[in-house]
Amino acid sequence: MNFMSVALAAAVVGVVGILAGILLGIASEKFKVKVDEKEIKIRELLPGNNCGGCGYPGCDGLAAAIAKGEAKANGCPVGGDTVANQIAEIVGGDTSSEKKVACVKCIGNCEKAKDSYEYVGPMDCRLAANAPGGGPKGCSHGCLGFGSCKSVCQFGAITIKDGIALIDKDKCKSCGLCVSACPRHIIEMIPYEAPVIVECNSKDFGKEVKAVCQAGCIGCGICQKNCPAEAIKVENNLAVIDYEKCTGCGTCKEKCPVKIIK
Fold it and tell me: Cys-Cys with 61: which of 6, 56, 150, 177 at CB 3.0–4.6 Å?
């Protein structure tokens, strides 16, 4: 074997390797994606539930938005004040916010509400809503009680009792997944310290409500007439509370003839 040929081949391979290394190094510097160190630190603080309750596509999306100044330090409803304060140390900003929790606007349980027919099918509200009448419950606005909300709650805050979803507000992390999962839209976010709650979602007239449920709002307007702060109004036959005006005096609860204001 010719020694010079072997040496020449080795030299060529070596030179090509060196040139390739140099080119790769230049390319890596030219095309590398710059990562914001703040974003990395914020992501490490977020809980990682990826629930979407913040309005962004998972914790990565929120971390990026906070780092860019597009979202506040308290943007994660699951992390709460603890995480918000830690993030604020990185990016600054106000962490004060009013805690909200999910609320089921229905108390029409098996005893109080009537069914139009016996339902036989998947125990899922979203599927049952495709059945005749939007489900077996006589009230087309009431909780179906099959637990679609419970199935999406990652925090064990929802239970089903007597055909009604119940929410433990101390376990609720305000992610909003149950709100999206409910096909009848009877779950809404309200202030944690809400002094009163209207436990009904029916938009029907009083006579129609009473025909299918013993615990429905009849839209009589007595609460509205007696509220000294003008914090409650009847809209579409249903009492609605303006929590910014509500003082928690309890007058609406005392005056309500069907006792659906708690």
Answer: 56
Closest CA to 151 of 183, 197, 111, 113: 183
List the structure tokens of 12: 């060529």
One-letter amino acid for residue 14 of the chain: G
pLDDT per residue as tens digits for the range 210-247: 999 999 999 999 999 999 999 999 999 999 999 999 99
Number of compact structural domains in the chain = 3
Model confidence at 1: pLDDT above 70:
no
Buried b (16+ CB within 10 A) or exposed e, 208-237: bbeebbebbbbbbebbbeebeeebbebeeb
Is 8 inside any structural domain?
A: no
pTM of the model: 0.73
Tokens (6 digits) for 258: 């069907």
Q: CB–CB of 140/166 below 8 Å? A: no
